[in-house]
Amino acid sequence: MVSRFRAILARRDTLALLVTRDLKVKYSTSRLGYLWTVIDPLMMSGVYWFVFTQIFSRGVGREPYLVFLLCGILPWQWANGVIRDSSRALTTDAKLVRSTNLPREIWILRVVSTKGVEFLLSLPVLVLFVVIYQRGLSWYVLAFPLAALIQAVLLVGLGLTLAPVAVLYKDVRRMLRVGLRVLFYLSPIIYGVRDVHARAPEWVQTLYMFNPLAGIFDLYRAALFPDFFAGWTEVAVAAGIALVALVVGVVVFTRLEGRVLKEI
């Protein structure tokens, strides 16, 4: 494991080159380019804001609700993109995966890093609405990088597991499409962790805590809604699950790598 990590670290320049290439290709093939990184989450937020403030009487979240939504939707876009694209990370460039001597984990790290950069590039839209609504920041903004780090570790672990499994078992991609829709509503995006604590039975609260995105998204949101922060227990659970996911991902990827190379 240590030797593989060293090999990946030695090829960090190649990883940066792949990420840069992906971003350039994505933005160069569209007239709006970078703006799509902002438009997509902004449109999603706008739809949910309209539904829950103009049509239904909302009993969840905090005001300004649009800012509240963006705090959940932006990191969700990162998670959703990685989980979706990791399932084809080894097949999209199958010839390169087979023929180059790069550590094959690079292709998963490429997806996580590319989507992570897109997440960072989308943050100005959140800053814009924070300024518009004159929403102050709390000291929890210092924990923002911690939330991003935990999410990155979690996504790398999930990506290392999903990438080889999706190659060997074709139904995994279809299952992921359904699973991601369910996960969206089971994560604190249009509502908060405190809403779950206030409304759900105790056994549901306990189960909910084992969704690692709950603690991660709640920590992101704490920077702007500190009074709505559920506490560090969920964050600690999320960090623990992220580390377990990373270890499991490394083990699964290592064991299945040979079979995957024969398959692709």
Task: Supply the number of helical segments.
Answer: 12
Reported for the largest beta sheet, the result is: none
Low-confidence stretches: none
What is the oligomer described by this structure? Answer: single chain
Number of strands: 0
Strand content of the residues, in percent? Answer: under 5%
Query: How large, in whole angstroms, is the Cα Rg?
Result: 19 Å
**N→C terminal distance:** 24 Å
The overall pLDDT average reads 89
Kindly state the percentage of residues in helix: over 70%
Provide the succession of SSEs: HHHHHHHHHHHH
When the domains are counted, the total is 1
The computed structural class is mainly alpha
Quick one: overall form? globular
List the helices and strands and how they pair.
Elements: H1 2-10, H2 12-28, H3 35-55, H4 65-86, H5 94-99, H6 106-132, H7 144-168, H8 171-185, H9 193-199, H10 202-208, H11 212-222, H12 232-263
Q: Would you mind describing this structure in some detail?
A:
The protein has one domain. It has 12 helices and no strands. It has helices spanning 2-10, 12-28, 35-55, 65-86, 94-99, 106-132, 144-168, 171-185, 193-199, 202-208, 212-222, 232-263. Helix 3 crosses helix 4, helix 4 runs antiparallel to helix 6 and helix 6 (106-132) crosses helix 7.
